[in-house]
Every structure is written in C-alpha cells, then in structure tokens.
C-alpha cells in the first residue's frame, strides 16, 4: 500500500468515526428535546433481572449468594494454602549449597522439615493476622523476584543470613517459643486471634502446649532441665534479654539436621561480659563440669540410669583417678583442644603406646552409631504417620540416640555405658521400625 492510499484510508476511517460520534450526539439531543428516557445499558438490564428474581424467589437468591461466597472463600483459602507451602517458596530459593538462596534446600535437611514445620510457620507471627501480614509481605517478595535483579535478591538474603540484628527482627522469639515453651504458648494463645472462624491457616496456629510439645518429644525450655548441658533459657532470654538467634543462628538454614549452639558462641559472649564485669555468674571457661552435665553423668555411669539399676563402672582412666570430670585438663589442654591417640602418650603413657585403644574405642563407636544414624533419619521421615503410642516409642528411642549424638568423645568418656545406650536405642528403634514397615539398616537386627 502506498503512502497516499494509506493516507486516504486513514482519512476515511476518521470521517466515519466522526460521523458516528455526531450521530450519537444528535440522538442524545433529540432525547432531551422530546423528554425521552435513555435506554438502559446491558449491565443495568442484568441488574434489573437479578432484582426481579430476588423479589420473586428470595430464598433461592440468598442460597445462590451464600454459595458464591463459600466458593470464593474456598478458592481464596486454597490459593493462600498453595502459596504457603515450602515447595512454592522453593520455586525461587533454588540453590543447593548452604548459604543465601538455598533456604529450601537447607530447610529440607533440617529437623523442622521432618516435623512439617514450614516456612510460613517460622516467618510469620503466630495467629491469623500474623499469617495475613506474612502473606502480604510475601506478595512484595514475589514482586521483587519478578522486577529486581538476582544480585538484589541475593543481597537481601545475605543480609538475613549474616546480619544477626536484622535476622532477629525477621524471626523474633515468639515465633520459636510458641512451640518450645508452655508458658509462652499460653500467653500467645490468650492474647492472639489464632484462627479465622475456627479455620487454622498453618500448623503453628494449631499448636497447643504441653500436648504438642510432649507428643513431639520436645522439652519445655523454661522449665525442663536440658539433657546434655546445664543451661537456663529462662535466665538468658527473660533475665538477660537474649534472642533465640543469639545462640541458634541459622536454626533451620545451617545445613545440619539439628542446630546446636557452638561452644565458641558461649565463650565469646561470656568473655565479653566478664571483661565488663568480672563478677558475672557465668562459669569460668575451664570449669567444664559446671556446664557439661552429661559428661559428668557418663563418667559416673549414671546417664539414663534406669530405676533399680547399678551405675555402669567408670572407664579405666576415670577409675585410675586421672580422667575424672574434676580433672578434664588431664587430657584436654584447653576447651577447644580435642585429645587424640597421640595425647595418651604425650600426657600419661610416655613410650608405652596405648593410643591404639583410643582409636579402637572411637572406631567401634562409629560402627555402632552409623546404622542408628540411618534409622533415626528414617523414623523422622515417618514421624507424621505415627500413632500416639508410636510417637511415645520414638521419643524414647530419640532419648537414647541423642545421648550418643551428644557424646563428642565417641565413647572415650565411658565406653561401657555407650554400648548399653546403643543397645537400648537399637532394640527400641528396631521394634518401632518393624511396626512402621521401615527397613532396618544393616547392623540393627538383633
């Protein structure tokens, strides 16, 4: 088409449009002159028919309106639920190495995932309004995923993973305490709208302690004694004002199955406070037995001692009086110096090489514990399929298994006692696995 033809075609279309507009204006003027009413449009005609139906059949009309509202609420709930799953979050957090961007990957390896505690459970304040606020924040995150660069996204995620003060604002204490404390759970539930007309939007909003905590084998961190270390959460959180993340940074995204505070974290804080006030109540760094109560119980043979049973005889080193809990420095030069087979000769035996016993005990410990590690993982995977009785049995297994997991000496502190604990864990775990139809790892069969 030539330019002149295009120009003529455009002029013709414009003339037709102008004629139609003039015709509409003339009709409008004629209606006003003759006093004619404007013909209702399609929408008004539809509303008129709906109004007539409502007057003719009010009960049917009310039923239709209620049905529409129910359908809309159901669709909205399902949409909220779908976009609250960890799998949905994992569409953007796609990295598979520990660090920013790998939040879904690290969560999937953490104990919280096995307990079906999802992203929205920890990244939104408990209660219905906390949930909705988190969802609104999630819409902004989705907008950022579409509009902003990957570098911008990684910068934000890196800040959350490395800036402790920023992370504390993202996950305040209440988000943790609703599951891990009876008193905090009650306070939160008493002062928060937990559901929308009885509909709980996520798992954490249905958590009621002590029932939830006990069924999942969790301690009440304020009132129960810690099983492996003498530590007061009440004093540190309520007395000193610490955040859970001060000690449990990366609690679900550190890449490990369970997040346990590092001794370096304790020492760094205590040393800083001690420099400011030499009279603080925190134990001195060389007072090992003040904190490591499970090690003391291992030495004394009383760890997990059943009623009526005799304490397991102490290991040879303890029995000889050179390796008691009161004299840890016999083998530990300092808090961070772990003994090796060579330490035996350097510190005590001289040219008499008994280091092979050190290695044999630790190797045996690894051999015994390896199938229990696998069994522990498989049982956790089946956690939400267990009956109440099976959960109680699992919690009993976990008590024995955790005692092994906490024994960083790998049996050196009391090699006889760890064998007995391993046997208990094996018997309980095997029975439970058989009941659940879970294959028992090699080495577990009696």
Question: How would you portray this structure in words?
Answer:
By secondary structure, the chain is mostly helical. Helices cover 61% and strands 0% of the residues. Helix 11 crosses helix 12, helix 21 (355-381) runs parallel beside helix 23 (415-436) and helix 22 (388-406) packs antiparallel against helix 23 (415-436).
What number of structural domains do the residues give?
Answer: 3
Task: Give me the strand/helix succession.
Answer: HHHHHHHHHHHHHHHHHHHHHHH
Q: Rounded to an integer, what's the Rg over CA atoms?
A: 34 Å
- How would you describe the shape? elongated
Q: Find the structural class using helix and strand composition.
A: mainly alpha
Low-confidence stretches: none
Q: Supply the number of helical segments.
A: 23
Percentage of residues in strands: under 5%
Would you report the number of β strands?
Answer: 0
Biggest β-sheet, characterized?
A: none
Head-to-tail CA distance between termini? 91 Å
Q: Report mean pLDDT, rounded to a whole number.
A: 87
How helix-rich are the residues, as a percent range? 55-70%
């Amino acid at each position: 088409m030539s330019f002149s033809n295009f120009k003529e075609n455009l002029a013709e279309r414009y003339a037709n449009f102008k004629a139609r507009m003039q015709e509409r204006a003339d009709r409008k003027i004629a209606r006003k002159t003759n006093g004619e009413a404007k013909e209702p449009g399609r929408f008004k005609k539809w509303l008129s028919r709906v109004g007539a139906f409502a007057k003719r059949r009010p009960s049917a009309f009310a039923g239709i309106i209620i049905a529409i509202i129910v359908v809309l609420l159901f669709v909205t709930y399902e949409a909220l639920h779908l976009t609250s799953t960890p799998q949905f979050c994992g569409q953007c957090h796609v990295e598979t190495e520990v660090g920013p961007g790998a939040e879904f990957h690290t969560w999937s390896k953490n104990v919280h995932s096995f307990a079906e505690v999802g992203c929205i459970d920890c990244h939104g304040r408990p209660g219905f309004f906390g949930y909705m606020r988190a969802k609104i924040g999630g819409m902004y995150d989705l907008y950022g995923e579409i509009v902003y660069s990957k570098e911008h996204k990684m910068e934000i995620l890196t800040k959350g993973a490395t800036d402790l003060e920023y992370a504390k604002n993202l996950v305040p204490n209440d988000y943790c305490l609703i599951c891990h404390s009876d008193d905090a759970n009650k306070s939160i539930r008493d002062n928060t709208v937990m559901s929308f007309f009885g509909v709980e939007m996520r798992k954490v909003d249905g958590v009621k302690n002590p029932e939830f905590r006990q069924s999942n084998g969790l301690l009440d961190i304020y009132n129960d004694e810690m099983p492996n270390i003498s530590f007061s959460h009440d004093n540190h959180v309520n007395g000193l004002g610490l955040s859970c993340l001060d000690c449990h940074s990366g609690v679900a995204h550190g890449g490990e199955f369970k997040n346990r505070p590092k001794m370096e974290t304790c020492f760094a804080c205590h040393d800083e406070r001690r420099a400011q006030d030499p009279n603080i109540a925190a134990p001195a760094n060389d007072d090992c037995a003040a904190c490591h109560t499970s090690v003391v119980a291992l030495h004394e043979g009383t760890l997990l001692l059943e009623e009526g049973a005799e304490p397991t005889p102490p290991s040879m080193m303890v029995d000889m009086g050179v390796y008691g809990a009161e004299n840890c420095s016999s083998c530990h030069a300092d808090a961070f110096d772990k003994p090796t087979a060579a330490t035996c000769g350097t510190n005590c035996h001289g040219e008499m090489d008994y280091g092979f016993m050190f290695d044999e005990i630790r190797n045996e410990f690894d051999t015994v514990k390896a199938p229990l590690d696998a069994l522990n993982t498989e049982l956790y995977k089946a956690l939400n399929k267990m009956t109440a009785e099976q959960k109680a049995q699992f919690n009993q297994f976990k008590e024995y298994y955790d005692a092994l997991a906490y024994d960083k000496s790998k049996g050196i502190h009391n090699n006889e006692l760890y064998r007995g604990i391993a046997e208990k864990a094996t018997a309980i775990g095997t029975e439970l696995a058989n009941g659940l139809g879970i294959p028992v790892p090699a080495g577990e069969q009696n």
